[in-house]
Amino acid sequence: MPAPRGMGGPMGGKFLTEEEKANQPKVTPALLKRVFSYLKPYTKQLILVLLCIIVSSFFSLMPSMITGKILDDGLLKKDFRALIYYIVLSLIVTLAASLIGVAETYINTWVAQHITYDMRNQMYSHLQSMSQRFFTTNNQGDIITRMTSDIDGVKSVITNTFSSILSNSITLIIAMIAMFQKNWILALVGIVIVPIFTVPTRQAGKKRWSLTNESQQVNDEVNGILNETLSVSGQLLVKLFGKEQYEYDRYEKANRRMIGLNIKESMAGRWFRVVLTTFTSIGPMLLYLAGGILMMKYDSNITIGDISVLVALLGRMYMPVNSLLNIQVDWIRSMALFTRIFDYFDIPVEIRNAPDAVTPSEVTGDVVFEHVEFSYDESKKILKDISFTLNAGKSIAIVGPSGSGKSTIVNLIPRLYDVDSGSVTFDGIDVRKLDLRFLRDKVGVVSQETYLFNGTIRDNLLYAKPDAAEEDMVEALKKANIWDFVESQEKGLDTEVGNRGLKLSGGEKQRISIARIILKDPVIFIFDEATSALDSISEKKIQDAIDPIIKSKTSILIAHRLSTILAADEILVVKDGTIAERGTHKELLNKEGIYRELYETQFSKAIIEDEGASELEQYIWGTQPADEPFEGV
Ligand code: ADP
Questions:
Q1: Tell me: the pLDDT tens digits for 132-175?
Q2: Helices marked H in 70-162 — which ranges?
Q3: Rounded Cα gap, residues 33 and 28, in angstroms
Q4: Neighbour tally for 36: CB within 10 Å
Q5: How far is the CA of 405 from the centre of ligand 1 (A)?
Q6: Residue 627 pLDDT more than 70?
Q7: Ligand 1 atom at minimal distance to the Cα of residue 409
Q8: CA–centroid distance, residue 613 to ligand 1 (Å)
Q9: Which domains does the chain have, with CATH numbers?
Q10: From ligand 1's centre to the CA of 423, what distance in Å?
Q11: Of the candidates 627, 482, 632, the residue with the CA atom closest to the CA atom of residue 546
Q12: How many angstroms separate the CA atoms of 633 and 608, rounded?
């Protein structure tokens, strides 16, 4: 007989942790229906699995039944032919049961793999439709766990839990029918014996399990102490505070607790085996006794073969019963798993295409913010009454202290988030009404943290425009001021950028991502300038790459450096989520407000760092009166 599935742990059983007990999923018909909806496309295969299980369970029980024939018709009657016949038959059915078991495992695994394949694809596509908010609020580890181990868990639910329930139940039913057919009195005795065996072993198993848990905890504690105190900085702290004795005592105490528990645990394991062997051997004895009484005292026509069949069948019942008792734990865990996965599936898609989304044939690039209010969560309003107009072909620089909401403003344009109230329009059409793909196609963002995929420079460029010709790529790289670098590489466009572009410097990465956007050729360019200092040569190269774009294309820049700000047609100064000032550089300087303050602290510093100041900067420098603030810095 194939080993009953779902056993997992020792014969003593599986138990729920306190946490699992507290968070038991609600198993509703709707949940079950949903779980089974994943099985439905594979109904045919599952019926085949069921048939295999029935036949192999039956075949695997047959040798037990044949034992009776071997004894009664073969040995006791001294019929050698019958003996050989039954022995061979027994071998054949055992082999057949195993082979059918193999087929069953194959179909079962196939179905489980296909179900998880469907589920993974569905989950991946669902995750891709999630908004930026989802990814910023959820831990990446959790998201990946859901995609990998949770969905893998489903596979084991199907191959183990579900088929364990089926195969064990079927084995039990067949064994019981066979027992009742032989002799109903002995069958009843057998049925009473099984729980007598399982209850004490479960109790012993539970004790053992809780000891294992406890020793695991102490083990974690000991490891914690080791990690804390044997690290370089931990040791330093211990030494400087003279805590050696204290730490030693702490360690010694945990260590002592651990050996105590380990001894108890080993002994619990030993006692468990004693209980197990005692009760498994009591069963057959009771059946022999009851059979003997029937034979000798009541003159029943029960044969020795019948009694041995019953004993053999009884032996076959322990495992499935024990397994089915454990199934409850597997079942709860499986349902918890499905609930967790479904919870993810049920997260609504926040940013989706409007049913009546439009795809204009042409757009010029006017962007208008009208009374835009926005918050990431209810607790704090991030943008308050933001209104501005960016005309096609013009550029706006957004400046302001860190955290004032600059990135948030630009995030609303490609609909990484939607406004709470007010509107963002693109060529007069509310962005929420535009086809999402169309919109994102028209907006190009170079973000602060440039992200390159692991692959070659070519791969990263083609991500923006899969059908780009080599010349287009070279052209874009030239415009982004990075062609010289690419050309100087041995492999040119096929140079590997490394994981997340790690093989390139910050400035090179940035310029490649600029080339990627140039290749994409959007209607609006958004640059979120890096705050972290690049070396001045890199900055100059980046500046030279984006300057022509700022001057010729519709663009928005979140700017930290004066040279970028000066290139823009208008400057918006954002503070605490509102536009505090707006105008040109000169107008704003004369206002003596926040801009001026920022200018004195932040921008002038950037100029000092930037040895290769742009022509524009030099122009401004040259035209500033001597008492301008940067003069003295
Ligand atoms: P800036 O670009 O001006 O530095 P941001 O627009 O990035 O500012 O952020 C504005 C405010 O919104 C900050 O207080 C920031 O903490 C908060 N914030 C930014 N992104 C998120 C987010 N994904 N979830 C919650 N709060 C956010």
A1: 888 888 888 888 888 888 888 888 888 888 888 899 999 999 99
A2: 80-128, 132-137, 140-145, 151-156
A3: 9
A4: 10
A5: 6
A6: no
A7: 6
A8: 30
A9: 22-183+317-350 (1.20.1560.10), 184-301 (1.20.1560.10), 454-519 (no CATH)
A10: 19
A11: 482
A12: 8
Name residue 482's amino acid.
Answer: I
Distance separating alpha carbons of residues 172 and 61, to the nearest angstrom: 10
Task: Give 631's DSSP letter.
Answer: G
Radius of gyration of the chain (CA): 37
Comparison of pLDDT for 632 and 598, the residue scoring more? 598
Whether ligand 1 lies within 6 angstroms of the CB of 195 is answered as no
Residue 90 CB-half CA count within 13 A: 14
Beta bridge partners of 370: 423
Six-digit token string for 225: 């102490």
Tokens encoding 565: 């700000």
In one-letter notation, the amino acid at residue 159 is T
Residues 367, 388: Cα–Cα separation, whole Å: 8
Residue 575 buriedness (CB in 10 A; 0-12 / 13-18 / 19+): middle
Alpha carbons 569 and 132: distance in angstroms, whole number:
30
Asked if 332 contacts 24 with a C-beta cutoff of 8 angstroms, the reply is yes
106-140 pLDDT, tens digit each:
999 999 999 999 999 999 999 999 988 888 888 88
Residue 403 Cα to ligand 1 middle (Å): 6
Q: Is the pLDDT of residue 573 over 50?
A: yes
Complete edge-to-edge strand list for the sheet that includes strand 570-575: 443-446, 524-528, 554-558, 395-399, 570-575, 578-583
SS3 readout for 319-365: HHHHHHHHHHHHHHHHHHHHHHHHHHHCCCCCCCCCCCCECCCCCCC
Cβ of 404 below 6 Å from ligand 1 = yes
Residue 54 is encoded by which pair of tokens?
């029935």
* CA 211 – CA 263 distance, rounded (Å): 10
What is the model's pLDDT at position 592? 80
Distance between start and end Cα atoms, the chain:
87
Q: Is the pLDDT of residue 185 over 70?
A: yes
376 in contact with ligand 1, CB cutoff 6 A: yes
Residue 147, Cβ density class (10 Å: 0-12 exposed, 13-18 middle, ≥19 buried): middle
Token duo for residue 484:
């010289």
From atom 23 of ligand 1, which residue's Cα is the shortest distance away? 136
More confident residue, 60 or 534: 60
